[in-house]
Amino acid sequence: MVKVRKFKGCLADQENASKIISPPYDVLNTQEAKEMASGNDMCFLRVSKPEIDLPDGTNLYSQEVYDKGRENLLYFRKQGYIKDDSDERMYIYMQKMGEREQYGIVAMASVEDYENGLIKRHELTIKKKEEDRTKLSDTQNANLGPVFLAFQDGEEIEKRMMEIALTEEPYAIVDGHDETQHVLWLCSVDDSEFFQNEFAKIPCTYIADGHHRAASAYNVGRMRREKAAQDGVELSGEEPFNFFMAIHYPESNLKIMDYNRVLKTLNDISNEDFLQKISESYDVSGPLEEGTDPKPTKKNECTLYLGNQWYRLQVKDDKIDKSNLIKQLDSQLLTDLVLSPILGITDLRSDERIDFVGGIRGLDELTKRCHEDSVAAFAMYPVQLQELMEIADAGLIMPPKSTWFEPKPRDGFISRCFD
């Protein structure tokens, strides 16, 4: 069963929350972050992406950047931009995007559970990104952004969470720049104890998003445990570094969006020959009539934008290896049946001939890219959360760029400092 704990959060100042909270560090590059923070000393990007306060050209992975992150975090606390809560507790965080509301409980998850596989993973991390977040967390002595965790069979947790959200006054409400609303509630100490006890009945949780944050938290915990052992310090297992901040979402509250692909080249293959080669593994229909929605409607279906026209592709049944969970995923089928054999694209992480577009940008972004810097685009059907959990249960790893979660919580609304 998982260990979930309350903690004393560092909360964005109520009156200035809209100036403080910022998108997660990994959805903006340095220049975009610098532009967003321009003219706003309270923008939390100064803490989560501290290189924006250093001269252009600074090595993003230098100790100078991590030290600046610690300096900025301490400054934010000293100025009262973020303030220590009065009690250890849990928090309810809701994001509303359009008509959809997503509720989760912010609490500490266990490094030991991560190590022992009770917090289940489905993605590999990129070593450089993992090292970057490890160094920043260790230097700042803090967790800045939460890991997304999903859980099943927590009806009592979900019931009480919704009762609080519907009856209690929020701590703060912020309308984000992307038309997403963010709302935070403070749970009572008694309710926090209730949640802690109920989570003790949950056998495992699943990382939905935030594999690098989780891995970095584990790394910090491991380093500090090793240091304590060297110093002869006996540990209880409840030390702050043995936990990390996470939002725990009931599985019913999460929705995975499509994660689409654009191709920079067809390797001198003509459009007609490309379609012909695809038709060996997919039933191809189209071009679609103008006004037809090109969005895929079911599993094993994707759509292709090629030559200013959309085509619908359905994987032929005999091409699906139904004995293998990974090979049944649409993203893996596309790689195995099209990208690799036809174009020679085998390493999605490093091959510069392919790029990825999150579903939040819509299919218009795919056609836009094909008129700017690409020659074709594949719109994918979203992975289902049940598929993700089955793959994690089996100890398997999903292909890169398979899942895109929205809406995303903002960094800086609630942070967690070790001391």
Average of per-residue pLDDT values: 95
How many helices? The count is 13
Q: What number of domains?
A: 2
> How far apart lie the N and C ends?
27 Å
Task: Name the helicity range.
Answer: 25-40%
Sheet of most strands: 9 strands, mixed
Cα radius of gyration in angstroms: 23 Å
Q: In terms of structural class, how would the helical and strand content be classed?
A: alpha+beta
Strand tally:
21
What would you call the shape? Answer: globular
Query: How much strand content do the residues show?
Result: 15-25%
Low-pLDDT regions: none
Organism: Stylonychia lemnae
InterPro entries: UCP033563
Protein name: DUF1015 domain-containing protein
Pfam families: DUF1015
Give me some keywords for this one:
globular, 419 residues, 9-stranded mixed β-sheet, 13 helices, single chain, DUF1015 domain-containing protein, 6-stranded antiparallel β-sheet, UCP033563
Q: Can you describe this structure?
A:
- The protein is α+β, with helices and mostly antiparallel strands and 419 residues long.
- It has two domains: 4-255 and 407-417, no CATH class; 259-381, no CATH class.
- Helix content is 32%, strand content 24%.
- The chain contains 13 helices and 21 strands.
- It has helices at residues 17-20, 30-37, 45-48, 63-79, 111-115, 127-140, 155-167, 189-199, 211-230, 271-278, 330-343, 364-370, 385-393, and strands at residues 4-5, 10-12, 82-84, 91-97, 100-110, 119-120, 142-143, 147-151, 172-175, 180-186, 205-209, 243-250, 256-257, 259-263, 282-285, 301-306, 309-315, 354-358, 376-380, 404-405, 414-417.
- The strands form four sheets. Strands 1, 4, 5, 6, 8, 9, 10, 11 and 12 form a nine-stranded mixed sheet that branches.
